[in-house]
Amino acid sequence: MKKVISSAILVLVAYFSSAPVFGQAKGVSLNKIIAKVDNYYVLRSDLEEAYQSYVGQNQTPPQKCQLLESLVINKMMLAKAEIDSVVVEEKLVDSELDSRMQYMVQQFGSEKNIVEAYGKSLEMLKSELRQQVKDQKIVQKMQQKITTDVKVTPREVRKFFDAIPKDSLPYMPAEVEVGQIVRFAKPTKEQKEALRQRLVDIKKRVEAGEDFGKLAKEVSEDVGSAQNGGDLGFAKRGSMVSPFEGAALKLKPNEMSDIVETEYGLHLIQLLETRGAEYHARHILLRPDYNRLDLTEPTRYLDSLRNLIAIDSLKFEKAAHDFSEDKNSADAGGLLRDAQSGGSRLAMDGTMEYAMFQMLDTMKVGSISAPLPYRSEDGKSAVRLLYFKSKVPPHTADYRVDFEKLQNIVLTNKKNQAIDQWFRKSVADVYITVDPEFQGCRIFGTTQGSAASLSGGGGN
C-alpha cells in the first residue's frame, strides 16, 4: 500500500515544497544540467532537493529515475504552458511569495538570521524564490487543466481496495476530527497610538523630501514588499482588503494616505498610478509586537462562547462560523482539514501540531477545551477552543472506515494517469534531452541510452 501511495503522489510532490530551498551540498556540482525541455532545464540540484524533501520528512525517497521523470514532466508543463499561453496572475505569485518569506522569518527568527544563514541578501533570495513560486503556480494550473474532468466512482475505490493483498493492508494510525474557534489578541489603544505616531513621523519625512521606497525598505514590516520599496504591483479592484483599497483609490498619483488600519496592522499608502480597473500602490506597514499583546479579552470572549455551547444554547459549528477569526476553518464550522488530502481526519501522530496532540491526549471525544494560547501560522498571538469531534482508533486499513482516504488515492492515481497520457501525447511538441549519466532511466517509457548529450555538458 505504501508503494502505491508514494507512486500516486510522486508527480504532485516532487516539484512542490512549502519551504524554499536555497542551499547546496558541499563538494558536489549541483548546477550541472541533467535534462532539458525546450528552454527549461533540470539541474542536479533540482533532483537532489526533490530527493532530500522526502528524507527531511522521514519518508523513503523514490528512486532518482522516478524523481527525474517527475521533474522532466513538470518542466514540460512549463514549456507547454508557454506554447498554450497559460499564465498566472502576478498578484497570486506575490501573495504566495509573501507567505513564503513570512514563513522563513518565523523559522529563522528574523530577516537578519536568514541573510546570515544563506549568505545572500533578502532581495536576492526573494528573486530566486519568486521564479520557483511562479513556476509552481503555472504547473499547478496546467495540472488542473489536464485533470479537470477526472472523477472517481465508489466501484473504482472498491476495486482498488480489493486488489490489495489482505496481508499487505497497512496499519493506520489513530485519526481524529478536530474543530477550533480562534480569536486574535488585539493591540491596546496605547500600542496602536505608538504605531500611528511612528507612521505620522515617517509621512512627514517623505513630505520633507525623503524617498518613500527607501523608508519602506528600512522600516516596513511587510517582508514581501519591503525589499521592493513597499511596491505591491498592480492590483485589481476588489482584491485588497476594503479599508486599504478604499483609502488607496481616494488618492491621486503620488499622493499619500492618512494612517489606515486593517487586520494586518497600520499602513501608510502611496498611490503610484491607475490603469482601468487596476491600481498600483506601495505602502509601509507597521504591526504590533504580537509577543506583548494581552490575551485577557479573547480568553474571556471564548470562555463565554464555551459556556453557551456547554448549555446547548449554541452549537459549536455555528459559533465557529459566526465568531472564529480563523478564516480558513470558520466557513467549515471550525473543522480543520488535512493539508495533503483535504479530508477532515487528521493523523494523531508525529505529524500533528504538538500542542494540539498534547491537549487532545487529555480530552474525551465530544468535549471542548478551555481557552488555550495559540500562535497562528503568520505569527499572531491568539486564543482558541478545540472541539474533539471524533476519533478513529489505530486499525488495519478498512474500506468503510478509510473510504475518503482510499478515494483520494484512487483519484490521485487517475489524475497521474491523465497527466501521463497528456505527456505521451504532447511529448512531440517539445524538444527533450536527458544527460547520458541517466541512460538507465526509463523516462517517457523508453530507456534514455540513445538520448543526445546536452550541449555544454553541465554548466560551470
Automatic annotation (TrEMBL):
Molecular function (GO) terms for this protein are: peptidyl-prolyl cis-trans isomerase activity
Listed InterPro entries: OMP_Chaperone_SurA (IPR050280), PPIase_dom_sf (IPR046357), PPIase_PpiC (IPR000297), PPIase_PpiC_CS (IPR023058), Trigger_fact/SurA_dom_sf (IPR027304)
Write the record's keywords in alphabetical order, separated by commas. Isomerase, Rotamase, Signal
- Domain PpiC, residue spans: 173-273, 276-387
Pfam families, per the entry: Rotamase (PF00639), Rotamase_3 (PF13616)
Q: Does the keyword Signal apply?
A: yes
- Any idea what this protein is called? Peptidylprolyl isomerase
Signal peptide (from-to):
1-23
- Reported EC number(s) for this entry are 5.2.1.8
Q: Which residues form a coiled coil?
A: none
